[in-house]
Amino acid sequence: MEVLRQLQGFEIPANAWERQVLARRIVDYDPKWLDQLCLTGAVGWGRLSPHPATLDYSTARGGDVQGAAPRQRRVIPTSVAPITFFVREDADWMTPRHPGAEVSENNGLSHGAQKVLDFLRQRGASFFADIVRGTEKLKAEIETALWELVAAGLVTADGFDNLRSLIDPKRRAGQGSGRTTRPRHNAGRWALLHTDEVVERPRAVEAACWMLLRRYGIVVRDVLAREANLPPWRELLMAFRRLEDRGEIRGGRFVDGFLGEQFALPVAVESVRAMRELDSTQGTITLSAADPLNLVGILVPGDRVPAISGNSITLRDGAAVTVPEVSASVGGEAIAS
Questions:
Q1: Main-chain phi, psi angles of 306, to 5 degrees
Q2: Whole-angstrom distance, CA of residue 107 vs CA of residue 61
Q3: Partners of 316 in the beta sheet?
Q4: Does the pLDDT value for residue 337 go beyond 50?
Q5: Do 134 and 119 contact (CB within 8 A), yes or no?
Q6: Structural contact between residues 10 and 215, judged by C-beta atoms closer than 8 angstroms
Q7: pLDDT band, residue 184 (cuts 50/70/90)
Q8: Rounded to whole angstroms, how far apart are CA atoms 221 and 237?
């Protein structure tokens, strides 16, 4: 839960979350822990950034010139769709809906995905078998449709294993025997991701500030280069100042080399000060390039490493290390974040 509080709101490819991010941040990571948090309702998941297809249609629909056809772009189901987690009790920062979520047709969805979406709008949260029976579609068609709706940021599910069953090719093919057999379809329910609840803007922006502070400890504008789903910096700046005025966070100049105001949790300031007294440990950590700590070329000197599945970065005492310098004996070290 502590790691998910730090990472919530940051979108990472769906197939990288467990193998490349959580498994490297948590020693002896067990997928059952994530399932338990999701199934008990403590944590939810889904795509929060608008899919380009919904944006294209929404823009064209609202501003077409006469006689011009709106641009048609399809939502393609993919295992690298950007997914994030949100802790429900801290989720005031979430935007209730994104452009295109209410468009009922021609929004880049296939016919099967649109039919499943309409079914969930009418019936509410439903099990996989109920969706199959209610839409009168084949199971394979419903699998593809749900995957497409996840990629579009329109649906979520009770548990994370629902998503595993879609992105794992072995489970979709029904492979495995004995102890390795996993159910092809999880028992959890599928539901619409977005709700009608609207949080007051100042409260939502303040929640976004706390989310960033838990993730980075010290927040400067440069650190937000890879962030999405955030209010404009000017709104964040005003909220940070209010938190500082209330004495809940610290404001000042904590890190050299960056322009603009800086804000920090009190414990982060003390931690940074304590680092001055520590000797270099030559500790090496390898992380996924999709992890939010991939700030190479942003805060850490070096060339940027694309934040895609399969890429990784290695840091030695906080500095980026090139591949030939990395020792194979420390390449798989796990860290507790």
A1: -55, 135
A2: 10
A3: 284, 319
A4: no
A5: yes
A6: yes
A7: low
A8: 9
CB 21 within 8 A of CB 331: no
> Cα–Cα distance between 263 and 159 in angstroms, integer?
35
What is the sign, positive or negative, of the torsion defined by CA atoms of 108, 109, 111, 116?
Answer: negative
Tally of CB atoms within 10 A around 76: 14
3-state secondary structure of 75: coil
d(CA 14, CA 155): 14
Determine what percent of the chain is predicted with pLDDT higher than 90: 57
Cα 254 to chain center, whole Å? 28
Q: Are 269 and 219 in contact (CB under 8 A)?
A: no
Coil vs helix vs strand at 211: helix
Split at pLDDT 50, 70, 90, the class of 57 is low
Mean pLDDT of 72-82: 85
pTM of the complete model: 0.84
pLDDT of res. 316: 87
Most confident of 196-200, 292-296, 306-310: 292-296
CA distances from residue 203 to 206, 207, 210, 242 in whole angstroms, order as listed:
5, 6, 11, 12
Contact status, residue 53 vs residue 75, Cβ threshold 8 Å = yes
CA–CA dist 175, 186 (Å, integer): 15
Residue (of 39, 45, 33) closest to 7 by Cα position: 45
